[in-house]
């Protein structure tokens, strides 16, 4: 078997057949759509129950499984896929904390078209966080699928209980098991999680995490099929795919793939930072946290979902933001209407399009910009849970205030958490005051970490510089797909400058800027939101199909391919013709 000296501790091997398959843990599509898979004993769920719910949570966080969304009828499927899982903790040289790697090998692994799909979780999700893309496409094709949580995940550590998450997903006390995340600070308060508090800059290693997951996948194929070993990049095609942060991770991997492990890359809506091109996520997220609430009060967004309250009125908190920015001297106008126009013009001047701003109303109403900026600032500055910048900290919520989580809440975190609180009984506290705009103090502090020049700002910029993607090899088939209406990772800041840079460096990636698609397919099930949009996943599946045909059926790889001209879904159910595929 090939070397896996980067594995920390044991490799767990589990079998999943009968009512517990690889793709849906036995739930099938109807079960995935349904209520959370139950725990017989909420205080002590079984390993099987935790896995089932983690898979369901990951599906629901990525795919539109709503009644109008068309998953399973217009595109996609959730067949029963029996097989085995191999799971371990792996570590990048020099890192403080491990990343979780997991390989799913279906019983019907295709020995004649040896294929390994490697992927990284979207957002900061746990290890199953890309199953709706990589697993849903790869497993039915007879491919093995290798996942990494890329140094993020929901292995939350609770100082009140001195516990974290073991390899099997169960809670375990510090010192009793190898944990997914164990903070170096032995004493503290509240909740710590790997992405923000590892002491590493995990985002800088996402590409290496993906390549380690690929190596782990080959080694586990050797173990699963010793008579067919060795599995190598020369006899097994390795396809890298991911979306959002996972899309950025596979593009990072393509740039550091010195041994030519990867046979092709399909990246959806990537969080990619291109040197001297585009804008870094921290820059535009911290800017959005400050400015978007005021700008979105503009009349042009009056019918935009989330831009007004449930009664169609403007958000009072957003009007307070306009007043705050005026008081700080950032807005010169004295009337609300003029302040709104000024805020809108400011964002327009820094590259925000109307399309991106409109879709960003969802992220603004859900407070994602503040949440992202606080967590990423802590990661970039390598801060522990009790020394976060700008006075922030995480704690269990008890009656709206910081407290101690109960056992049932704590037990569910690994299965239910998205990787960055708040959520699942955990809150983001601090960085606020008693003013009419309570969050602005912390947000202003976070923004100054980008615009300022003190030691912390310099350290943050150094960490962001380390995220810069490197140039992939010339002959690597690459396809980048991005929703034209993405309001979380706008194309103007991410994929467009990356693709332009590749072209300038004599690379020829395929690029689809998909009309009517945005960042969160899962949001399309929300009333009014899906009417204006299309899902991005079917385009990702189509790109993977085309890559498969190139790798295994010798179909030529196109030098360019027009983006499909889809039409927005409207109030009814999605139809095949709307996708334009």
From TrEMBL:
InterPro entries hit by this protein: AB_hydrolase_fold, OHBut_olig_hydro_put
Record field: transmembrane: none
UniProt keyword annotations, A-Z: Hydrolase
Domain of life the protein comes from: Bacteria
Ribosomal protein is among the record's keywords: no
Alphabetized GO MF terms: hydrolase activity
SUPFAM superfamilies assigned: alpha/beta-Hydrolases (SSF53474)
Name under which the protein is recorded: D-(-)-3-hydroxybutyrate oligomer hydrolase
